[in-house]
Write a structure and sequence with these properties.
Strand order of the largest sheet: 23-29-20-21-22-31
Shape: rod-shaped
Mean pLDDT: 83
Strand content: 15-25%
Low-confidence stretches: 1-6, 491-570
Largest sheet: 6 strands, mixed
Helix content: 10-25%
Length: 570
């Protein structure tokens, strides 16, 4: 029997499916192992807190509850809070000063128990924070006392904030905005809240600035209303008004206007009307001449000082104050003359200029100068002295002039051809009923107060005079004349009177003071100037351009009632 060798079999190589099956089993096993390891690693977080865990501001990572408690207890016992102030100063509050202590109520244990240990890996990168208010407590009264005792909260030591505001006026510069000041005043409630939060978290230091505890100014430098206020104030204060009084100038600018302006309770800029009015009144007292005495170098060579009358510059104070206030509010600078109620011929020491009527009541003689040249001179008859009708001294503007007027009183109706009133019902006019003038006629047979002139003289003056021309009436002792003339006027060849006042270096050079009325004399029997009864009567027009609404002596007014002239019979 032949020996038969067994047939050997060759192993077949594994296919792809076989290899995949083996690999899958290996990965599954590895994953299982890894999961077991991960879960095993998470087991430790059953007793300690996850990584990156902060509790009440303390790092509790991988610490047990007991370890965290010790940290909290130690922190409370040795706690000191440093409080940083504005400017770099610091103050402290110690835990023992406010009765700070740790209190544990199971919150830590619950927090640990709530950890899902299988989530430990994500907490290695994702931090978590917990604030547990029940673990720290302080004595409220001690806390209040400690906080209120801080120097930074004491009113007497605090630098309070200042709002941005308008500066005072600076000459030549005007107004500007002064920036707000922060100061160091604190809001007590914000301070308490911030300190309490720090203490409960055992935070070692805080900044009051970062807490936003400082009281801020209410008005910043860019406040729209503040900007508008400064702009308006500068608009007013930058005005320059140059008043012109002949050769003299009076400048009003911000140095004075700044005292009249301010900001009201409503935040609006105001201009004090009373201050403007007071300034215009001051101008009037300085430059008005209507009530000021005049010095006249008379045609006799002597200088007299005439008091009384109404001639001269007179500012319309109410209208000028209104216009000045309007200019200031508009911001418009200008050179101007004030608004006048009454003007004179010139500015300076004497305001009557070179055209005027000079009336010497003592000599009963007048001179009419026009543009510095004597045009006519003449004797006249003035008010009856014995009856108290004396023509007053003073300087007056011619009120108006009128042809063919009738002067009326209760006992007379006198037509005149040339009527030129200058002092109420007193005026210059022709007196056809008189054949002589001058001398002492006025003492016993004078007029009712008017200046009676020869017709030719009255005509010449009338044709060359205008409303507003000054009439200067004065007394000059030593110039009396006992001789009356027939009224013939003399041509003007005399040197005109000087308009500048005489200097007063000595007593002799001092102008004679002119009284406002003629000196009293002994009354003598007389008959007043007779009225013309045969000539036709002419009513004075009620629309005559009289400044004061006055008409000639005794002229009827619009109501038909008669007015009597000075000293007229009743």
């Amino acid at each position: 029997m032949e020996n038969v060798k067994p047939r050997s079999r060759k192993k077949k190589p594994l296919g792809l499916k076989g290899l995949a099956a083996i690999g899958s089993g290996t990965v599954a096993a590895a994953a299982l192992i890894a999961a077991l390891i991960y879960l095993q690693a998470g087991k430790q977080y059953e007793k300690v807190f996850f990584p990156n865990t902060t509790i009440n501001g303390m790092d509790a990572s991988k610490k047990s509850v007991e370890e965290v408690k010790k940290l909290i207890a130690s922190g409370a016992q040795n706690y000191v809070l440093s409080i940083g102030e504005r400017g770099g100063s610091t103050q402290e509050i110690k835990g023992r000063d406010i009765g700070l202590e740790s209190v544990f109520d199971g919150s830590l244990e619950k927090l640990l128990a709530d950890q899902k240990t299988y989530e430990w890996l994500k907490h290695t990168k994702a931090p978590q924070e917990f604030d547990i208010g029940t673990m720290i407590q302080y004595d409220q009264d001690k806390f209040e006392s400690a906080v209120s005792g801080l120097d930074c909260l004491k009113d007497e030591l605090v630098e309070k904030p200042e709002n941005a505001h308008v500066s005072d006026y600076v000459s030549g510069q005007g107004y500007h905005i002064i920036a707000a000041k922060e100061g160091k005043q604190l809001d007590p409630e914000k301070v308490k809240s911030g300190i309490s939060e720090a203490v409960m978290g055992l935070i070692p230091e805080i900044s009051l600035e970062e807490l936003g505890a400082y009281v801020k100014p209410q008005i910043p430098a860019d406040d729209p209303q503040l900007i508008e206020q400064v702009q308006t104030l500068n608009k007013y204060a930058n005005v320059t008004i140059t008043y012109s009084f002949g050769n003299e100038k009076k400048v009003l600018n911000g140095d004075k206007i700044s005292k009249w302006i301010g900001i009201g309770e409503d935040g609006k800029v105001y201009l004090s009307s009373s201050s403007v009015s007071a300034y215009v009144k001051e101008l009037a007292s300085q430059y008005d001449t209507s009530t000021r005495a005049k010095n006249l170098k008379t045609s006799y060579g002597q200088t007299v000082r005439i008091t009384g009358g109404s001639y001269g510059w007179k500012i319309d104070q109410s209208t000028e104050a209104d216009e000045l206030a309007a200019l200031i509010r508009s911001g418009q600078s200008q050179v101007r003359e004030p608004v006048y109620k009454q003007k004179a011929a010139s500015h300076g020491d004497n305001d009557y200029g070179t055209t005027y009527v000079e009336i010497n009541l003592t000599a009963q003689h007048l001179y009419f100068y026009k543009d510095g040249k004597l045009l006519v001179e003449s004797d006249f008859v003035s008010g009856n002295e014995s009856k108290g009708w004396s023509t007053p001294a003073g300087v007056f503007p011619l009120t108006y002039k009128q042809r063919d007027a009738t002067l009326k009183g209760e006992t007379y109706r006198t037509p005149v051809s040339y009527w030129m009133p200058f002092n109420g019902n007193i005026g210059l006019h022709d007196a056809t009923w008189r054949s002589t003038f001058g001398g002492t006629i006025f003492k016993t047979s004078g007029s009712h107060g008017c200046v009676n002139l020869p017709p030719a003289v009255a005509k010449t003056i009338f044709e060359n005079i205008a409303a507003g021309v000054p009439v200067l009436c004065y007394h000059l002792p030593g110039t009396e004349s006992q001789t009356a003339s027939n009224g013939t006027s003399k041509p003007a060849e005399t040197k005109p009177a000087e308009t500048k006042p005489a200097t007063e270096p000595t007593t002799a050079a001092k102008p004679a003071e002119v009284p406002t009325a003629a000196p009293p004399t002994t009354a003598a029997p007389t008959t007043a100037a007779p009225p013309a009864t045969k000539e036709p009567e002419t009513e004075i027009s009620t629309s005559a351009p009289s400044k004061d609404g006055e008409v000639g002596p005794g002229v009827s007014n619009s109501s038909g009632k008669k007015k009597t002239g000075p000293g007229a019979h009743k």
